[in-house]
Amino acid sequence: MAQGIAEQQIIHINFESFAFSEFKTANKLYALVKEKIQTTDKYYLLLDEIQEVTDWEKAVNAFMVDFNLDLYITGSNSHLLSSELSTYLAGRYVEMPIFTLSYKEFLDFKAGYTNKTVQNSTALFNEYLQKGGFPMVHTADYPQETVYKIVQDIYASVILRDTVQRHKIRDVELLERIVKYAFDNIGNTFSGKNVADYFKSQQRKVDVNTVYNYLKALESAFILHRVERFDLKSKEILKTQEKFYLGDVSLLYATMGFRTSLIAGILENLVYLELKRRGYQVYIGKLGTQEVDFVAQKQNEKVYIQVAYKLESEQTVQREFSSLQAIADNYPKYVITMDDFWQENIDGIVHQHIGGFLLGE
């Protein structure tokens, strides 16, 4: 509109609104949009939560063929960009994944929504660490208890709508146990068999395929992100012992409380999400018996990252730097920690505070 586009040329439909509840099929949606397009001018069509429409791919394809428009669709489920969409719109769409707030965005929210100005960068990072990145919780200066209640409600609605209902999961109690197992092993490698073996030790028999199906359902709702391992010698992706990270760290606190014992995994989670926001493909690196927390690639760029809570001993320094020192190429290498004072670089490997890394270029 600021560029002179007339308001009637902008069509916005939110399928979670009851006002559009009768337009949940491709045919009815097409008829609605066709009625609103009155001229040959370019129209701007914005369709929110498009997955609520049956056969929506057919309607979207028809809009692109029949009308002069710029089309945006959003959906809160990973099955949105399905194989059907690839078939209908191959080469004609750009995907833009949306994550919860980055640290930089959190600081913007802090400045824009509250009157509190905190100069202490450590205090600001700790607040972000403990409250997570869901935008709603940063629109006011909510106490911790309220933040976790908001996140619990988000979690409950996603579990119910995007996991249980969509995937027709019958054993909800088992699903929640698998969620807690994954949350409790944030930053650790495990497989569906590990989960099944754990339940077996608890005198509960669970089929491995069921575990994989439930983990896949949690991925599709963006509660979990699966990260594969990459062998740095053979250049092959390994199919065992993946890691799972949370869609937002506040999900852990809201469901299991603040777990200081998981701080290293939580920091890894923050770094992983930041790399994904910046458009990197992210893997766990395997180099012989050693592991690199993240190998991140984007076109011709590559970066190696180790994440630790603090470098409190010579043994810790040796452990975190040695795997990066063993990599022969000259791509950037980082060790990311919460150390405020010790910032020494070793053999060209940059040691950086996580707050600085999240705000850096």
TrEMBL record:
InterPro entries: AAA_14 (IPR041682), DUF4143 (IPR025420), P-loop_NTPase (IPR027417). Residues 6-107 form the AAA domain. Residues 161-309 form the DUF4143 domain. It comes from the Bacteria. This is ATPase. It comes from Basfia succiniciproducens. The lineage of its organism: Bacteria, Pseudomonadati, Pseudomonadota, Gammaproteobacteria, Pasteurellales.
